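Instructor's aside before we start: the two examples that follow are unrelated to each other. I chose them only because their records fit on one page, so don't look for a connection. First example below.
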Amino acid sequence: MSQSLNSPEQWLRYMPAAQHQRQELRLVENAWDQLSLLSSLSLLSSKASSGGDLAQARRDFAALSTDLMRGLASEALKNRTDDLVARAQVCIDVLVRNLFERTADIGFFATDGGVAEYLCDPAPDLRPAIESRLREYASKYTVYDNIFLFDTAVQQCASLHAVPHAGGGLQEEADHAFLQSVLRGDVPYVEHHAVHGFCGSAEPTLVYAQRVLSGGRPVGVMCLAFKLADEMPAIFGSVQLDDAQGSDVVLALLDARGQVLVSGDTLQLPVGWLLPQASGAGVQLVRHASRRYLMAVCDTQGFQGYRGPGWRGVALLPLDLAFDESTQHDDRSALAGPVPGELAGQAELLSQELREIPRRSAAIQSALERSVWNGLLELNHLGTGKGTDAADAAPRELLFAKTLLSEIGATARKTAQAFSGALQDLYGVVMQSLLRDAQSRASLAMQILDRNLYERANDCRWWALTPQFAHTLEAGVVGCDKATAVLAEINGLYTVYACLVLFAADGRVMAASQPAQAHWVGTVLDEDWVRQSLRLRGSQGYTVSRYEDSRFYDQGPTFVYAAAVRGEQRAGTAGPTSSAPVLGGIAVVWDAANQLQSILDDCGVGATQRDALAFVDAAGRVLRASGDVQAVMAPDTVAASRQGDRTAALAGHLYGVGLARGQGYREFRVSDGYDHGLSCLVLRHLCERRPASPAALLLATPVAAARIAVEHRVQMATFLVGSHWLGVDAAHVVTAAPDATVLNAGGARAPFLGLAQIGERVYSVVDLRSVVVAGPEGVAASRTTDPHRQMVLVRVPAPEGGSAREFILRVDALGAMLDLDRRAVRPVAMAGGAGSGVSLIDAVVPVPTAGDKAGQGMLCRISAQWLEQCALGALADEPAQDVDALLAAA
């Protein structure tokens, strides 16, 4: 990756969404500057607003804002470059897998008995018959544009279709030299991309060539001309299918020098154009035709040791369109719903260098909330004459300080919303990348599978035309050595097969390619695919078994492809015709276990151990899986994915889901009437499932304290536990402090959890999660520090004039500091513990709320009696109290 891609800040100007978020954050920073100025207008205002805390929060927010925008730009850039790399990689790897099959084809077809016999004596009157045989081959292997046969003088003596020689005398010399080198060579195949005049084009063509032997001596050369210009657009189209972002990507195939061989957009990237920057694999920013592009270049990963002609895949994306929000609508809509909503704040989703950003955001926000909360608490104490500066505090200055703190609190909430939006964008970018990766892996796996099975449908039909098989069946020779040798030779070239079987019209096995299956020779088969193959009409017909167990395969279920073997054609033709009698059939047993596993392994490169890939059938059964198999096997996983869910919650973890059925390949599953019914399911592990931190309630229009008569005014310090809004009389509250580790204290009685330190002192801790039923998704109390939680130090006066007792209430989040009218408080009765008879909640107060929870919020007051009994250690160990039931009754 070039150096310029390592400086994400410079990319922000190309990212409209990030620019919007940066503007929002700058507006918030300006608000903090104004509040800092206001807080300095008086000593009381500065003290109440904790001027030092406010300044530190301002600095922390500014630093976090910079880091957050850098992270957003970095992740957005990574998202785009990863996507480009994936597209380029698919283009070259899918092509190489296709070409791997061609290397096997030329090796087998060059040994065809009919071809060798003809080249021994290529008489003109025999040419129509051999060309008819070439057409039979091409009608099954539609990837070939032409097929040529040359004699030992390298003169063309047959072709699939006639084409005029292109290129003149010099080209004829080059063609002659190439064919002579093949004739003299002794290699399994020759792969040659160059201008071949005999192909009738002045443009380079990809040819697979092999010398043909008869009796151990060369009798000619066979050449298969591959439809490269036809194949690559199909690959490009499959990579961009149903993908708005992909429609802007320019895909191409390059040679080793970086010259364009095939382009998906010849206007932006013409064939023959040289991209010097693409002479090696990598990602970089390039300028091409007066436009800037992000470019990814990929070498092939190879297949079974084969790496193709040394070509590369390339994907280019115009920089001005790279971060266009309109092309990402489908990805963003996939982030809606309850499960994606849980992902906000899950730092595990982010890269290691960005994981501190959510924690820092939460820590700054918690500290500011705590500062405002404590400031209002201090002012409340001043207002009631409990503060040391009460006598010096003028009512107007006190009101100004309270108003300023309220405004600081409102600005803190706006800041939280701004940061939440930016973080949501950050998580959204990461999620888009992971979901697209899951879908891409699933689509790639199905594309590879369909192309693999396309070849199997072709192979069985072509091999059914082998003359030796018809001779064996006509002679009725069970266990024929010649037929067995041909089957074994084929099986040696095509490693995707577990076995090849020749059977007669009565289902009797006549020969098998594998010695381990020889004991079936002479056995009469009764499988459905045998009967179906014997009823096929014409040489284009084939049949496929269900995905099931086979006697010829001991590694589990598989597909068996079969075609009918017919008698010889009438004189003047070359092979069987549709009217020739069916003598039997040939079956090819696919090595399903190894082939499916190989596809999953190749598509799983770069995945984690918690990811899973699987092939499933139409009924939802998992056929083959890799990675976290238990996740795939979980009930309803496949059903949920087929309903379009892009995320799933399984066994306490969240996953991104990709599911693909495949589009078929050429005529296979497109126009031949066959459908295997398989799909690929991919689960990308996102993170462990954790509950989201509760959000503080926003008050609609807080009642001004001045409007409430002093004798009716009650000040409540509020906080959240789970989904419940609780409060205590502010007179009982000393301060709020950041969450701390709760130490285990031997002999501590419920509801005390242990000990924690605030300042220089250690206090007993009551974790309210263990006291309140927080709903069906409530989380048990933990002793470890949680940056999202807070501690509230309360002081309970001792009865009969004794010294006050202090202990900590551990809460999930701080709420508002409220001035309420005592007359609005509604006493309620909640069943107390069996030992104490004291209820946790003694009253509720309806308070108007705004934001997402607009309406009437119900504040539950913790009773002073409960606090006293708790301080005295007089509460019995009892079940958590059901606040939901209380609110329903109230």
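Example two begins here.
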Amino acid sequence: MSETNSAADVAAPHRYTAAMAADIEARWQDFWDAEGTYEAPNPTGDLAGDPELAARPKKFIMDMFPYPSGAGLHVGHPLGYIATDVFARHQRMTGHNVLHTLGFDAFGLPAEQYAVQTGTHPRISTEANIANMTAQLRRLGLGHDKRRSFATIESEYYKWTQWIFLQIFNSWYDTEADRARPIDELVAQFESGERATPDGRDWSALSAVERADVLGGYRLAYASDAPVNWSPGLGTVLANEEVTADGRSERGNFPVFKAKLRQWNMRITAYADRLLNDLDGLDWPEAIKLQQRNWIGRSEGARVDFPVDGAGSVTVFTTRQDTLFGATYMVLAPEHELVERIIPAAWPEGTHPVWTGGHASPAEAVTAYRKQAASKSDVERQAEAKDKTGVFTGAYATNPVSGEQIPVFIADYVLMGYGTGAIMAVPAHDARDFAFARAFELPVRCVVEPSDGRGTDASTWEDAFASYDAKLVNSANDEISLNGLGVADAKARITEWLKEHGVGEGTVNFRLRDWLFSRQRYWGEPFPIVYDEEGIAHPLPESMLPLELPEVDDYSPRTFDPDDADTQPETPLSRNAEWVNVTLDLGDGAGLRNYRRETNTMPNWAGSCWYELRYLDPNNSEKLVDPAIEEYWMGPREGQPTGGVDLYVGGAEHAVLHLLYARFWSKVLHDLGHVSSAEPFHKLYNQGMIQAFVYRDSRGIAVPAAEVEERDGAYYYQGEKVSRVLGKMGKSLKNAVTPDEICTEFGADTLRLYEMAMGPLDVSRPWDTRAVVGQYRLLQRLWRNIVDEETGEVTVVDSEPGEDTLRALHKAIDGVGGDMAGMRFNTAIAKVTELNNHLTKAGGPLPRPVAEALVLLIAPLAPHIAEELWRRLGHTESVVHQDFPVADPAYVVDETVTCVVQIKGKVKARLEISPSITDTELEALALADPAVVAALDGAGIRKVIVRAPKLVNIVPA
């Protein structure tokens, strides 16, 4: 502290300083904890016995689950937490029963990677991080109901994560009823013969393994051998959403390859239509809705079967079934399961040399190409590259409408993640197919007449012609002709023909793929699944939950050379043989049997798929959630037809990860009758990001931002010139500012005000520590308006405020209230500042009604100083549950407005009049004004145009 400040503090010992703020803030945080100030009553508890409290509207406010990082918080992290806290406080003061709390999403890779590096058990480091983050958040004065907080690593929490997994495992999607149903009901249909088995045999004739395979084709959680994203460098598989556009892991930036492994999946695709349709009823940003719509990717078209000798048929999905006569070859994804079955031992006679890739046999060519394709990401494979790659499988398929034998290739531009993993190639009318056909010297046949004059001889074209507004040509056989039809009519006609001949039908396809749910890691929820000696998966009974995570000697999965795709996962849990191999009685009548546990763990997304429900009823050990409690806080109501959390605040980066997964789990639980809400989050708000300047030296390495000096518009670190760009804030960029630093220097209330005042909440903004002092001074002026800095005595007087002050006060009340409700906290602070400045300039002691209203206005934003001032003003109850001020409309309206009087379009007078004046009254006043009378100089009046209260236009005769 400088000498000047020290002298000022001696002269004003009761001045609001950082030291005083620290004392005030600590005392009130202790008070809130001791009194349970923020505890929200549930309908089955206190609420039931308090009619007045029960009559209050409820408000459930949530932040996205934080992960307890070892680096702790920087000032960018609390932006959303402070915003929801301000909003929650305002809602309490406007009569709502508010539930606002915060837990920790604590499973996942960061703690495990730290454990691998240091040997520290993930639980130890995670719990230490939680304790640190909890202390940092507490210092900010966040009004959370601490009774409801938890971490996903607590066994009593993940017991219910495992229980939900079993509900999903034991369910199937009934497409006729359009909802999930218990798997036992499906079994009953097979047993009774109501539903036929895939091969037509009686259910009783199937072996246990065969029955398990049949049910696996229906279960909403199932294990399958399928192409997955394999990251050798992480030693685990990843969901599509966890792979970056350039084919690397989102965490760690390791290469990702396609590999076929047996993994658990969630059949989220069964809910594709509902996930799409229910977006319309949600109050979400349109950008997020659009991302989900695009990710789900609904498209209408047709399924077409192309027979292949000795291998049945290759099925394709196409949205351009009208161009079927133009299909001159087929392409399968390299991972397609039919590839091995269709390749012959040798190249067919006359095979074009370009098709073979220089390989001696189809098997050799396919193996080499698959390895090449596995090293590319889906984005790279679909890029519009000039050179198309692929290889002939040696097999031919039959075009069902022309009977023509067309070659079957594999190529990396076709993905298993979309459609059926196979396409019919119509090179004349698709740019990628055209490029491939030219590269491999394949036929290009025009079936949609070009409108650009190029003619129908496609062999002369330089590129494809794609159009939905043209006529079909060259599209006829002995039974059907599409020639002369427009695209829409041709689609309908050919779809009918395909169905009549049993070689296809109209269908809907989705881009959405089933959710890969296995991870080859340690630090995650164990699957409540065991396998018998025949390899059949059995769910653990509820009485055996939670299945706790065992101790292992080595936390790390077996990782490999990141560039070596030819590897297999080895999980940490598989090394604990005593835990893996068990003898259990599952209560299914089979008695004690030997089983093998699942050694994969659930992904880190599992715990965040349902955490909103645990906040409602965190200590319930008998049920997922009490139905009455869930319906009270989250059930459907007017304006919220699918129910859900009233306000959910977080970053936009989770649009197709957490948000989509949580919606899926919510719908399954709703279908099975466990919850009344079909959607988890009714209103979503995406806050922006707090950015900071990053300074880099000549090597491009970040240097400590706090040690950079500015001289003549340039920036220097230890005498060396450095560059400056605006970017993220973080420890690795050496530009992080911790909230602890700001709280120490200015106080938590100042930090809260500054973060809310920086700009609109949904817009990113740069951090500037030098600007924080502005909000600090606002609090000092506020304090000085109520407390004498020399004596510490309250200076307010019991008198009525004057007219000007009343107008300033009620305009502020009206504006701040609206801004708070609309989450426009920056403008709310501006209005409080304007009122406080008015009161400072007015001078003299504040009238008590004005002082109390001022404190209540700022209470949601700066709760500690508000509590202190409220108590000093003589109140014994906390400010938290006081009523927010209500504006008097009489003082909100301007007392007068300025009316312009014009003659022939030129201003001749300005009148100060009441805003409620009538046209007749205003006309009379304008015509009587001396300046107007003089300007008319006796001339007659042809017309008077009145636009009360702002304009009178006089047209002389």
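Residues 690-727 form one domain.
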